Amino acid sequence: MNTLFELRSDAEMRRDAVADNELRIHEALIGRGPWELSESQRKLLECLRGRQGRLQARTIEDLMVTLGGNPRSIKADVRELVMGFRLPIVASRDSETGGYFFAVSADERVRYSADYVKEAVALLSRAAIIRNDADMSALLGQVSIELRAGKESA
């Protein structure tokens, strides 16, 4: 259908997100990224590779048993994979289906990044109390520039 606004089903959008995630994972594993993966990052990525969507989440306890290490090292490796390789790995804190997985829908991306947004707002609110209005305007402008630059470098 050739329309101005193409409507895609949730299943089609999920399929495309999974394919994009798989491509990014593959490129990271074969060394096409900002740096070579560490052994622990490589093993973690292999463990999470098929975990596409919240229902496929893998708990940190399971990852510790499989990979060794501790929660802090696993969280650090996840952070590096997200920031360096732009992989949408998120964490669910649901009691029954909690754990790490690749976000495959807009809802998952928004829902599981909400805590980061809240933390950022709380930190900026604290800075706003300490700084004056002109300083905050300049700071927010700088944050905006850095966020755009990060997207463009991906």
Question: Secondary structure elements and their pairing?
Answer:
Elements: H1 10-29, H2 39-48, H3 60-67, H4 71-85, E1 89-92, E2 99-102, H5 106-111, H6 114-130, H7 133-152
Antiparallel strand pairs: 1-2
Commentary on this structure:
There is one protein chain. This protein is mainly alpha-helical and 154 residues long. It folds into two domains: 10-105, Arc Repressor Mutant, subunit A, CATH 1.10.10; 114-152. The protein is built from seven helices and two strands. Strands 1-2 form a two-stranded antiparallel sheet. Strand 1 and strand 2 form a beta hairpin. Helix 2 packs across helix 4. The protein is globular. The chain starts with 9 loop residues before the first helix and ends with a helix.
Q: Which characteristics define this entry?
A:
single chain, 154 residues, mainly alpha, Arc Repressor Mutant, subunit A, two-stranded antiparallel ribbon, 7 helices, 62% helix
| Uncertain ranges | none
Global Rg: 18 Å
Report on the biggest sheet. Answer: 2 strands, antiparallel
Helix content: 55-70%
Question: At the first level of CATH, what is the class of the largest domain?
Answer: Mainly Alpha
